[in-house]
Amino acid sequence: MTNYNRPQPPQATGVAVPPLHTGPLTFGTLFSRGFRAVAQNPKPLVLWAMLLPLAMHLVFAVPTALYDASGLGDPTPSGVDPAALGVAALMMVSTIIYAVVSALGGAVLQGFVANNVRFEALGHRGTSAELWAATRPLLGRLLGYGGLVLGFAFAAGFVAGILGFLGGLLFVGIAAAISPAMGPAIVAFVLLTIAIGIPLFWFAARISLAPAVIVCEGVGGWASLQRSWALTRGRSWRVVGLYLLIALVMGAAIGLLSLLFWAVTQALVPAASWEIGVTGPRVLAAYLSGLPVSLASAAFLPVLVTAITNVYLDARTRHDPLAASLQQYHAARAAGYQPAQLPDPFAVAPQYSSHTNAQVFPPTPPAPPAPPTPWGSNPADPPRPPAE
Predict the structure, then answer these.
(1) How far apart (Å, rounded) are the C-alpha atoms in residues 88 and 68?
(2) Can you give the pTM of this predicted structure?
(3) What are residue 14's DSSP bridge partners?
(4) Which long-range contacts (CB under 8 A, 24 or more apart) does 77-84 make?
(5) Could you give the CA distance from residue 150 to residue 199 in angstroms, rounded to a whole number?
(6) 3-state SS, one letter per residue, for the chain
(7) Which entry of 33, 185, 337, 387 is 20 to 30 Å from 222 by CA?
(8) Domain boundaries defined on the chain
(9) Are 226 and 233 in contact (CB under 8 A)?
């Protein structure tokens, strides 16, 4: 039996489904499974992985709307309005709180969605109660992973801010030196942005499998990052490609929603852009303008996490005998064994990972040899020799 400090999945009460093929998987399959998961199991994924983040986005969008409508850039006879400075301070505090809540809460929701994929691989479509029951024992590890990601994000933001500041100074210097021709300065700024963005994308891809590792292997936050780093070796650009492709689809959705909400804003508060200061129409217009990003971010969270969890399954299938372990698990289930009676098929053998003590799924022992038959019971036996 597996030695993880977490319970086995609860007794199945949802829908039994054909087991999910774990790999090897093509890029198109990885991309399509994210959307298919939401269509096949919409109740838990839409209710918890979409509507809950959306509610958080809508709450934290209020300070942003107040800041956009505060009129910090509006010309006033006495300079900047003190009330606007208070709104700016509120915006700064809410941004920090939003970053912390997004990192920690997002890590938990990623574990929730990863459990949905894990259940599908075990041949079962989990209900909301089952998915939360499987996620709850891992909350500490998921929060630890979220804290590490938050620390990395703040460090990366600090370094990127310094590089951006230096790049801005360089941009201004080049622009001042050759003001008639801004082309080289713009090219230099774009190249600097790409040089900062590519390593960040690559690093995010290397640690992106950590929530799936925590859910399927039961390790801690730091060990999950190490395991994700090992599993994505040679596959990081595949994950980057998934990120970019889903980001393109998400960008198209944001563009369509932006046109829709612009039309709604023009119908409700057509003169909001002409007003000065924090007014009701201006706050409403600013709030509506931020909704497309909030809606798209919430809608694509389960899609992205499902796709990345399938990358984990594909990497495990190529890296260690996960497919054989799952086949033995399904054979035992077909023979009448219950999940609590069986070892965890996602357990990792020590030779495939140095970050867990889990034992590999044991192979089926060979059948004992048949007892010898009495002499003469088989017609093909030669006659017994005479006794001397």
Answers:
(1) 9
(2) 0.78
(3) none
(4) 81/277, 83/278, 84/278
(5) 17
(6) CCCCCCCCCCCCCCEECCCCCCCCCCHHHHHHHHHHHHHHCHHHHHHHHHHHHHHHHHHHHHHHHHHHCCCCCCCCCCCCCHHHHHHHHHHHHHHHHHHHHHHHHHHHHHHHHHHHHHHHHCCEECCHHHHHHHHHHHHHHHHHHHHHHHHHHHHHHHHHHHHHHHHHHHHHHHHHHCCCCCHHHHHHHHHHHHHHHHHHHHHHHHHCCHHHHHHHHCCCHHHHHHHHHHHCCCCHHHHHHHHHHHHHHHHHHHHHHHHHHHHHHHHHCCCHHHCCCCCHHHHHHHHHHHHHHHHHHHHHHHHHHHHHHHHHHHHHHHHCCHHHHHHHHHHHHHCCCCHHHCCCCCCCCCCCCCCCCCCCCCCCCCCCCCCCCCCCCCCCCCCCCCCC
(7) 33
(8) 25-327
(9) no
Two structure tokens written together for 98 = 């939003």
Query: And the tokens for 17?
Result: 């489904």
Q: Look at residue 360 in the predicted model and tell me its pLDDT.
A: 40
How many beta carbons lie within 10 A of that of residue 280, not counting itself? 11
Q: What is the rounded distance in angstroms from the CA atom of residue 21 to the CA atom of residue 378?
A: 47
Asked if residues 142 and 108 have their Cβ atoms less than 8 Å apart, the reply is: yes
Calculate the CA 152 to chain-centre distance.
16
- Residue 172 identity (one-letter amino acid): V
Q: 103 is written with which tokens?
A: 């990192």
Tokens of 5: 């400090």
